Amino acid sequence: MTEEHQHTLALEVRDLTRAFGVRKALDGVSLELPVGAFLSIFGPNGAGKTTLVKVLTTLLNPSSGSARVLGRDVVSDAVDLRTHIGLISHNPLLYPDLTAEENLLFFAEMYGVEQPHVRVSELLEAVELDHRKLDLTRTFSRGMLQRLSIARALLHRPEVIFLDEPYSGLDPHAMDILDGLIAQIRDSHTFVMISHDLDKGLELCSHALILAKGRVVLYEPREAIDDAAFRQTYRSTVGMGVS
Amino acid sequence: MASASGRQLRAMLRKDIVMELRTKEMIMSMGLYSLLTMVVYFVALSQAGSNFDPRDIAAGLLWLAFIFTSMLGLNRSLVHEKDQGCLEALLLSPVDRPVIFFAKAGGNLIFLLAVEALTLPVFGFLFLQGTHLDWGSIALLPLILIVGSIGMAGVGTLLATMSVNTSGKDFVLAMLFIPLMYPLLLGAVTATGGAIVGGAQGVSVFWTGMGWVVGYDVIMLLASYGLYEFIVGA
Predict the structure, then answer these.
(1) Are the beta carbons of B89 and A94 separated by less than 8 Å?
(2) What is the pTM of this model?
(3) In total, how many domains does chain B have?
(4) CB-CB: which of B18, B92, B233 is closest to A82?
(5) How many Cβ pairs closer than 8 A exist between chain A and B?
(6) What is the extent of the structural domain holding B26?
(7) Residue B86 has pLDDT above 70, yes or no
(8) What is the pLDDT of residue A234?
(9) What interface predicted TM-score (ipTM) does this complex get?
(10) Strands of A160-164's sheet, edge to edge?
């Protein structure tokens, strides 16, 4: 990998395959994404979207092929890479029996965040949860949990943010807050978002990817996409299911 | 890196202790189960003849209770991590997988020792009252409880991590845990029996059993340490 690539490519995926037994959840996926881009990933259930994000976030090892995020290999540079990425999932990834503040302070310690109390206060304010910081997160609504989950993912100032169906189950107010937070940091971060919402995904993205049966059906920059043709391609993949 | 791992280990341990003190789920269920087991033992042995010396089987009864009690806690400790995807969040952070293993095993060890400390006086009151005890050798009991519990917590944490994603996790854990505990059980019962019987011979038996358990701990902890990354990533 050249020095130039290290600075310009957020994702570099080469012939990536991940199998679970005989079933290939990812089958020869290749793509490149520049730093600062917003990639929306679409596809039917079982298409391999979550598996792709899990491999890119070092939660799963590839069966073959390679994947680099910000020039770091997802297997050999995994520990270093984790300090540069954040994940906002439809699952809150928070401990229900810790308070909002305790949750964030715990993860701040895990990431070695400097001045953790200052950073935690800053983020709790940003997600409008500072007034609930001493409450156990098991008492939080879905929207509040998702806002706190965003704060957790941003604690260590990641450069690439992965979003796995982040709008799932959110009320309109929580969706607005999430939109606002994404807009605030949009220019300074790379985003990779899994979405079933075609309108939202296309509205936000600079690049769009359609996966089906673990393979790339379409991968194009936003400006090259014809919305009607894209929707048609997407619809044709729905129902294709798993390989 | 070592200081980062130390900081992460302390953070995970503190988090587990805070959550347990708040919910008391593990301590309550394990403690209650252990005490109920003592009561069942007492009732079951109440009809034993006058020649029956409870010291002959005390060590076996005690470790049987600890083994089954520990299984109850081990599953719960990992279920906490699975709630709302917390294990995933932990795995996303820049922490070496063996650090997670040592933190989880450390937490399980603390809770297990707390339950043992609660159970032991009850056991003594119910079964060893009025029997001749060598207090010098009885003082060795905490040592074998600690060393035996290290092995139980270490192997148990590894197996609980393996089984937590399976549909019948309680069954899977029991099927794996009990056979793997067999060598430890042998050594621990031997050492505990020696400490309860006392005398020069009892103390000698104690150290033989103790050596066995220490050897088991070293081998199994090294194996667990080596395997944890693979198991978590599988």
Answers:
(1) yes
(2) 0.87
(3) 1
(4) B92
(5) 76
(6) 2-233
(7) yes
(8) 87
(9) 0.85
(10) A85-89, A160-164, A190-194, A38-42, A207-212, A215-221
